[in-house]
Amino acid sequence: MSDALKSKIQDVFNEPGCGTNAEKSERQRKKGCAKPLTPGAAAGGCAFDGAKIALQPIVDVAHLVHAPLACEGNGWDNRGAASSGSELYRTGFTTDLSELDIVMGYGEKKLFRAIKEVIEAHNPPAVFVYATCVPALIGDDINAVCKAATQKFGTPCVPVNAPGYVGSKNLGNKLAGEALLDGVIGSIEPEECTPYDVNIIGDYNLSGELWQVKPMFDKLGIRVLGSITGDARYRQVAMAHRAKVTMLVCSKALINLARKLDERYGIPYFEGSFYGISDTSQALRTMCAMLVEQGAEADLLDRCEQVIAEEETRVWKQLEAYRPRVAGKRVLLYTGGHKSWSVVSALQELGMEVIGTSVRKATDDDKGRVVKIMGDDKHMFENMAPKDMYRMLKDAGADVLMSGGRSQFVALKAKMPWVDVNQEKHEPYAGYMGMVDMVRAIDRAVNNPMWSELREPAPWDTPLTESRVLPAITGTCPVTGVPAGVGRPVSLVPPMPPASSVPAPVTAFVSSATDFEDC
Predict the structure, then answer these.
(1) How far apart are CA 330 and CA 350, in angstroms?
(2) Which tens digit of pLDDT belongs to each residue from 245-257?
(3) By CB distance 3.0 to 4.6 Å, which of 122, 384, 427, 480 could disulfide with 514?
(4) CA–CA distance from 4 to each of 25, 77, 84 (Å)?
């Protein structure tokens, strides 16, 4: 590991914006937030995976992975981040390092040629080059290669130094934010700036969730200048330093980016959520209030309240048909980050009971919000083994499990409906409109009649209470024309010759006159 990367990791570990980190001793702080992973071990994602997840939703950039083929193959397009334009981000680019390249030291030359081919074939506004375990271990200097390629081809080549062995996926998220700060943000000036420019950090437009929020911004005259990184363009990210306010959606992943934008460019930030009606309204109020403090017109607050009133009235009217169908249902929520509290709040607004919520990847602020919403910390838990999850679903009488895809099989084993609320989901649940989509999905799962049938005893497990007699056969066989009751002997054994004679060879079996048994 290079000294520069070690220094960057230590800087990320020493995050004053994180309450958990601030409470640690200097020695504990240097160890980071999670135990470093063993190279090659599958333990929830490596640092490279986290960096790729955070940056891939920049849709017009060519994402080039400097690694053997498997790194890009395993990490390619593993989220449903939607794009309203370019689809280049969904094309997998890799240098496909071989043993010969590694032994002979061809890695840097191969990377330079790969950058050249990508630029000539696709002409992207920028190329993001990801370091992985193998080139980092053998000493390939992707910073130098990117600098030379930028000078040669005139296209920005941004190094992303997040090899998998340095730590967890969460560390990779933060290193991706550092790459944007060092190589992208501040490199382009917007044609015009307005007092209504904002950054949205930590939203990846999964299944188009950001699109459900943007119409409200349009009504208020707010412009999303920097979208980091949902449905983003390279120019958007490069101009993010001119925004007036930053909304941080997932503080666990990119709080370092929001804090340094505040330190370097004076952009204040707040943490909010677009899950649930009240949280969406609160996020809009906070954003507008901060914009007014930064110089926007004071009437923005009145217009914000008007938009909130209109949207809440409309969404509650749409929810009236669904609320009686889901009210009182018991939910086990197994997710993480800001969703550990924002989804809880959304479900409680519908009259549902949350019997437990995980706080994986959650900050102390996230956990504090869970306690405030649920009244205590008895229903919070960290990681849960499948057998414990199964027992909790059964013992607590849950009606539905809401989690990521890896937990769906526990729900199926418990004969219980499951709703996907994680990054792989195919339906957007953000904003007021997303609340209707979420309730519709829960209703569709919980009230599906198949579950009551599935939970009934199997027919073969039900003892017979009376004898059953097959009805008498009537009519004529439609195939052979043989009337009912006419029987012919059927023998599958050829007639045996007398014992004194020479055994005759078996040539064929004696069969009935038809190919079917008697009708």
Answers:
(1) 12
(2) 999 987 678 999 9
(3) 480
(4) 24, 29, 37
